[in-house]
């Protein structure tokens, strides 16, 4: 059950009730690819840093440890010891970006495992079966994520196939949810809008998706090579055709600025590997922009990453965390990842507050300016 | 101020009052080589797993980030955000085991940094100065740790030099503690008994050390290649000559069985890299012995590492932690290290309880037998 509590321009403050608890949106989902957040972050840590939704990757878990094993263990929630919502992607993105030697047919895709090279077939039914075995709160439809710069004719054919695949996903998910021994009989299904940067294809696809009355709608295939302006333009043109009484999820996005802009265009679900990936490289987020803690200027900096931050890293100094990173101590990465996820989770909290008070436009402007402070200092 | 609360045979239940709080002994110190416990464990975690004393390595911190930097940051306690006792080793062990191309003279040792190869000189005064800059609770004397199988004539000369070095350590530490701007003016100094497996040299050295009225006495140069029986024999012969009204520290030891035996021979301070190093390889300790979580038999094992364990890892299943280790997720290593340190810290708690109730002999026998259970199962 999705309820819009407040709108402010096109920004939505909403909540999605699920069997694993209610999600307050806009929300940033924290990516735990292989049933763990990279950087030695556990589900116990996620509770401490304000994570609402954990996101795991269907492809990775299918390959290792195997979705059947996770099902035997009682599903992904029990396996990870996480009682809040989990979203699983469809595996499509990884199949088209990570796996080698793929072959696309109407039935699905044959590709090679990145772990041991063995041949795997995945189509809409297989993706739903794997996600059903995982028992996630929200499953994503199996789609093709065409390259941003693909030829229009290719994108048209690809989107048409993705629509046909969605029908099969829906049927299979309905069948699986009705099985007596299914892990999560209330598993939701989100469809995915594609079309690269061709807004006419995107709009036509959005209209088709809207007719299917799904649990939620994602915009996929962005943040894969196009400019930020192209991305915002696609959102401007496409999101109005997606049902605004359902969750709207921008997949794989993005920077704090991207999120501030996309919320203003009606998006309320996000996920991105930036906070964890950047954290592992010592790049940390603050409201004044990103800092590279490996920079020599932090060598004797006794301040925390961010003043007044209540994350588990900000009880330590920049100097200490920098030392850990230089000494290649895993703790350095862990602290940076914890800080970054906390930062993203609390950015969303601030965004929700601004929409609630009807001040989102001013809030966005202020935050976008603040995010430039360190950059301006560095080049001034 | 060291107070023996209870003895049971030669086992001592004592406490050592320090400026950073009181240490209850027997105690296992948790090794954080470069001002961090390997395996992404922070000082906040240490409080959760019952750590009393953190141990850091003088050599590593001198090389990176530099003891002068740590002094500028207010000392190691402030740098790591740890308000309980810290023991620093002297750097001697690392100089003789890690560093390349060393040259020993009466003044001290010249060697090459393992980080960038630059030439470093360290003698008794330098070791004290570095440890004073770190401001640890307990500093260790600078000694030579001769190889277990060294010729007797070499060991004799080495121990004689270590004694001369100890006199210089004591003088230098007294001088540094009296400086107006010293980090920790109450820094304690422990001397180190050496002599390889030659008990006559060990005993003679112990008698010389006892005359110096130090804050504590360590037995060094064990667990470096000799058998367990040789080690116990050295303890049987040597410890009685060390003042039993002072802390007695067996450096770098060891397995749970080693600790159970050494406590029975009057030792009350321990440290070892086993729990963290083994944890990083998926080897975890239980009261029934060690388990290798990478073993296929744990693939679907829904039990925690150890039943009723309250450590942060034992809310997860063996199957989940095994998956993390197989997927090379840092979280797997972190959970195993947390469990192992918790296990060691709580083994010491049980040891203290047994001495208090005067049942140490029976307790030791029972625990040594329990530690064999998994091994017997595996080979039965």
Describe the structure.
The structure is a homodimer. Chain A has about 375 residues and is α/β, with parallel strands linked by helices. The first copy, chain A, folds into 2 domains: about 1-270, TIM Barrel, CATH 3.20.20; about 285-380, no CATH class. Chain A contains 15 helices and 16 strands. Chain A has helices at about 45-50, 60-65, 65-70, 75-80, 90-95, 125-135, 150-175, 200-210, 230-240, 255-265, 275-280, 320-325, 330-355, 360-370, 375-380; strands at about 1-10, 10-20, 20-25, 25-30, 55, 85-90, 100-105, 110, 120, 140, 190-195, 215-220, 250, 270, 285, 290. An 8-stranded parallel β-barrel of chain A has the order 4-5-6-10-11-12-13-14, surrounded by 4 helices. Chain A has a 3-stranded antiparallel sheet with strand order 1-2-3. Chain A has a 3-stranded antiparallel sheet with strand order 7-8-9. In chain A, helix 7 runs parallel beside helix 8 and helix 8 crosses helix 9 (about 230-240). The radius of gyration of chain A is 20 Å and the shape is globular. The termini of chain A are far apart. In chain A, about 55% of the residues are buried. Chains A and B meet through helix 12 and helix 13 of A and helix 12 and helix 13 of B.
What are the key terms here?
homodimer, TIM Barrel, 380 residues, 8-stranded parallel β-barrel, 2 domains, 3-stranded antiparallel β-sheet, alpha/beta
So how many helices of chain A?
A: 15
Which chains share the greatest interface? A-B, 40 and 40 residues
Morphology call of chain A: globular
Chain oligomer state: homodimer
**Helix content bin of chain A:** 40-55%
Strand order of the largest sheet of chain A: 4-5-6-10-11-12-13-14
Domain tally of chain A: 2
Q: Give the rounded overall mean pLDDT of chain A.
A: 96
The first-level CATH class name of the largest domain in chain A? Alpha Beta
* Total DSSP E strands of chain A: 16
What structural class do helix, strand and pairing data of chain A support? alpha/beta
Main sheet specs of chain A:
8 strands, parallel, barrel
**CATH structural fold name of the largest domain in chain A:** TIM Barrel
Strand-residue proportion of chain A: 15-25%
CATH architecture of the largest domain in chain A: Alpha-Beta Barrel
Could you tell me how far the N terminus lies from the C terminus of chain A, measured between alpha carbons in angstroms? 50 Å
């Amino acid at each position: 059950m999705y309820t819009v509590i407040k709108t402010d321009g096109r920004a939505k403050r909403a909540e999605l009730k699920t069997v694993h608890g209610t999600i307050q949106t806009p929300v940033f989902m924290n990516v735990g690819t292989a049933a763990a957040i990279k950087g030695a972050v556990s589900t116990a840590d996620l509770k401490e840093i304000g994570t609402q939704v954990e996101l795991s990757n269907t492809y990775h878990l299918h390959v290792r440890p195997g979705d059947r094993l996770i099902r035997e263990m009682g599903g992904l929630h029990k396996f990870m010891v996480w009682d809040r919502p989990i979203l699983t992607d469809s595996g499509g993105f990884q199949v088209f970006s990570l796996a080698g030697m793929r072959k696309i047919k109407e039935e699905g895709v044959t590709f090679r495992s990145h772990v041991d090279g063995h041949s795997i077939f995945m189509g809409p039914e297989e993706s739903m079966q794997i996600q059903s075995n995982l028992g996630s709160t929200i499953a994503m439809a199996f789609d093709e994520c065409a390259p941003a710069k693909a030829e229009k004719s290719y994108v048209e054919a690809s989107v048409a196939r993705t629509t046909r695949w969605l029908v099969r996903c829906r049927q299979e998910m309905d069948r699986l949810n009705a099985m007596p021994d299914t892990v999560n009989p209330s598993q939701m299904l989100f469809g995915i809008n594609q079309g690269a940067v061709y807004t006419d294809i995107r709009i036509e696809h959005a209209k088709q998706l809207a007719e299917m009355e799904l649990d939620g709608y994602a915009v996929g295939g962005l943040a894969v090579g196009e400019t930020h302006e192209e991305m915002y333009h696609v959102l401007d043109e496409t999101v109005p055709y997606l049902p605004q009484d359902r969750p709207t999820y921008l997949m794989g996005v993005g920077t704090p600025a991207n999120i501030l802009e996309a919320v203003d265009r009606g998006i309320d679900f996000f996920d991105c590997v930036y906070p964890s990936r950047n954290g592992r490289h010592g790049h940390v987020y603050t409201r004044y922009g990103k800092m590279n803690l490996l920079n020599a200027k932090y060598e004797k900096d006794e301040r925390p990453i961010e003043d007044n931050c209540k994350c588990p890293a900000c009880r330590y100094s920049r100097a200490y965390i920098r030392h850990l990173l230089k000494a290649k101590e895993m703790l350095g990465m862990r602290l940076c990842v914890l800080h970054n996820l906390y930062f993203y989770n609390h950015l969303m909290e601030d965004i929700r507050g601004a929409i609630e008070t009807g001040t989102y436009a001013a809030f966005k402007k202020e935050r976008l300016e603040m995010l430039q402070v360190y950059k301006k200092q560095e080049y001034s």
